[in-house]
Specification:
Rossmann fold, 7 helices, globular
């Protein structure tokens, strides 16, 4: 696979970053754009619409540039914002670049516990259940999604399966 786009989506605490980083390690010429890091660079305080807009616009610009190099671009998207998946799909189509959409799921309680118990460098506010609850939505698979429940499979197994699906697409 030369240039391509991999969109990893799911709620907070489901394992998007772990899977995305694993994909980056497993693919030659791959870049992972971590939108949450861009949000925290824009401002360390709580979530806000302006921070999200800046981070997603910056991510989209970076993805577009990486696909032109060509490189594989891996982007993570919260399921709360399905329009971002559409944005990246349109970008891939405009550039005639293959894309893969991955949906990661886990029960709400699992996402809550993972979020409040994980270290979050650069975050100055305490993540709580209300933040996870607000982002736990739009978990319906879309046609063509590769879907994984992260309570049943770890990041390493998910990455291996995604890489296998990329290398041997179904006919």
């Amino acid at each position: 696979m030369t240039e391509s786009l991999i969109v990893v989506r799911g709620p907070i605490g489901v394992g998007k970053s772990s899977v995305s980083k694993g994909l980056q390690r497993g693919l030659p010429h791959a870049s992972f754009i971590e939108t949450d890091v861009l949000k925290h660079m824009a401002g360390p305080d709580g979530s806000s619409p302006w921070r999200r807009r800046i981070a997603h616009d910056t991510s989209a610009f970076m993805v577009q540039q990486l696909l032109k190099v060509p490189r594989t671009a891996i982007i993570e998207v919260h399921t709360k914002y399905p329009e971002e998946v559409d944005r990246y799909a349109a970008m891939a189509a405009d550039l005639s670049v293959p894309s893969v959409n991955v949906l990661l799921t886990a029960p709400l309680e699992v996402c809550r516990e993972r979020t409040v118990n994980r270290p979050m460098p650069g975050v100055v506010y305490e993540p709580d259940y209300s933040l996870v609850d607000a982002y736990y939505c739009n978990l319906e698979p879309q046609p063509g999604d590769l879907v994984y429940d992260t309570t049943n499979l770890g990041a390493t197994a998910i990455v291996a399966d995604i890489l296998n699906n990329i290398e041997q697409p179904s006919s």
